[in-house]
Automatic annotation (TrEMBL):
Signal sequence annotation: none
Zinc found in the keyword field: no
Domain of life from the UniProt record: Bacteria
GO function terms (MF aspect): ATP binding; ATP hydrolysis activity
Record's protein name: ABC transporter ATP-binding protein
Residues annotated as domain ABC transporter: 4-241
Key words, A-Z: ATP-binding, Nucleotide-binding, Transport
Transmembrane among keywords: no
């Protein structure tokens, strides 16, 4: 049985004059646990929309998104997301940005039965863990900096560490390397692959770069808007490969 099943999914948005536009047209996709799925397709064809459906941030107009055979619940920590435009908290340091999710999760689980001393100890453990990730992304010296003090590529790397440290079951990445130079991009590709193997995550990775898609993906999804059907040309993107 597939872990994730997009079952005959259609996504339509109202256009300016009110008539609906089909963005995704009859997408049927079964994904097994541990797949690394890269997604390519022309700009505006619905790649981000596909990720938002898997995140559970939106519901399909028709069809269903099933996780373990059940309709998706609201976005939660089982499904992490990294956007091209980084989602860092501007008022938190790099370290606190990375620790934030772990902290929030621990509060949910432990509040009530951890003593203050144990809380401090746990928080120290989180910071040690975060420091390992910071070293791994080449930003060990940036722990106390704030997002506005970093370059775009540095912020992207922090956002990646922020989501990887949570070890989500499904990680959604929407052009996460857009601001990285070639050498850093290569390093981050290897880092993601390493984390993918260790944590047994299922990854969806949207990229403009076909070579990157083929290098990273255990499966490459190709979305097209200009496919041909028996009924003629359709509207909305389909998976064509
Ligand atoms: P991609 O990620 O492939 O560039 P998107 O998924 O961002 O494409 O967008 C696909 C199309 O859907 C675009 O034409 C976009 O304008 C449209 N779209 C996306 N979200 C909405 C929305 N909430 N309301 C109306 N149109 C939307
Ligand atoms: P990348 O963002 O891919 O790491 P950049 O070309 O943006 O590469 O920056 C190269 C290097 O210059 C960074 O690794 C960093 O050391 C430094 N740098 C760039 N922009 C800033 C900034 N706004 N603040 C501090 N250092 C910066």
């Amino acid at each position: 049985n597939p872990m994730l099943h997009l079952e005959d999914v259609y996504m339509r948005y109202p256009s300016r004059d009110g008539t609906p536009i089909t963005i995704l047209n009859d997408i049927d996709l079964k994904v097994r646990q541990g797949e690394f799925i890269t997604v390519v397709g022309p700009s505006g064809c619905g790649k981000s929309t596909l990720l938002r459906l898997i995140l559970g941030a939106e519901s399909p107009t028709e069809g269903a998104v099933l996780l373990d055979g059940k309709k998706l619940d609201a976005p939660n920590r089982n499904r992490g997301i990294v956007f091209q435009k980084y989602s860092l908290f501007p008022h938190l340091s790099v370290m606190d940005n990375i620790v934030f999710g772990l902290d929030a999760e621990a509060h949910g689980m432990f509040l009530g039965w951890l003593k203050p001393g144990q809380m401090r100890q746990r928080r120290r453990a989180f910071r040690d863990q975060a420091q390992v990730y910071l070293e791994r992304i080449g930003l060990a010296d940036a722990a106390d900096k704030y997002p506005h003090e970093l370059s775009g590529g540095m912020r992207q790397r922090v956002a990646i560490a922020q989501s990887l440290i949570m070890k989500p079951r499904i990680l959604l990445m929407d052009e996460p390397f857009g601001a990285l130079d070639h050498a850093t991009r290569t390093e981050m590709q290897l880092f993601i692959l390493e984390q993918w193997e260790q944590a047994e995550m299922t990854i969806f990775f949207v990229t403009h770069d076909l070579e990157e898609a083929c290098f990273l993906g255990s499966r490459v999804l190709v979305l097209s808007q200009y496919y041909q059907t028996d009924a003629g040309r359709g509207q909305g993107a389909k998976i064509v490969g």
